[in-house]
Predict the structure.
Amino acid sequence: MKRFSKKILVLLLAAAMILGLSFPSFVSAATPRLSKEFIGLYVGQKYTLKAKNFSGTVKWKTNNKKVATVNQSGVVTARSFGDATITAIFGKQ
């Protein structure tokens, strides 16, 4: 009986691994992402970031308001020289 239950457990684990390896390829196609990963702007320039593979609410944030601001439509405005990270929060906030 123990040998039989070990075989079943091994088969279930193997099936889980196979499904786990093939499943992410289907999920990755629908993963939300941004229209650009990196952008370079001169002071005063603007760029509109867009969310791809997502149709819900997106909340935008910047980590450095002195360098770049972002409004709730995803419009990034360069304010001074430096680096800033713009973060998109997808879904319910």
